[in-house]
From TrEMBL:
It comes from Nocardia lasii. CDD domains: HTH_XRE. InterPro entries: Cro/C1-type_HTH, Lambda_DNA-bd_dom_sf. PROSITE patterns: HTH_CROC1. Residues 18-80 form the HTH cro/C1-type domain. This is Helix-turn-helix domain-containing protein.
């Protein structure tokens, strides 16, 4: 099933927000990835809004991944998700 424009927009917003949270906490991508139990490459792809570089497919993080990232980035999961929705609406 082809991705929708909304899906692409939401994962781009999520990736940008993850990068903002990470930088605000003075963490590297590698530090976040290690603490969240994933590879640095996987985390880099999430920040880029991708699940694979070629072909360029939008990210589709699991609930478990989102929970782990919210814990590492010290942000409640509802806040992480709401920020994505709020930026999409604005």
């Amino acid at each position: 099933m082809p991705e929708s424009a909304v899906e692409n927009e939401l994962v781009a917003i999520l990736g940008h927000h993850l990068a903002e949270l990470r930088m605000a906490r003075g963490l590297t991508q590698e530090q976040v990835a290690l603490a969240a139990g994933m590879s640095r490459n996987h985390y880099q792809l999430l920040e880029a809004g991708l699940r694979a570089r070629k072909p360029r497919k939008p990210a589709n993080p699991t609930f478990t991944t989102l929970v782990a990232l919210s814990e590492v980035l010290d942000t409640p999961l509802p806040d992480l998700i709401n920020e994505v929705w709020n930026r999409n609406a604005g």
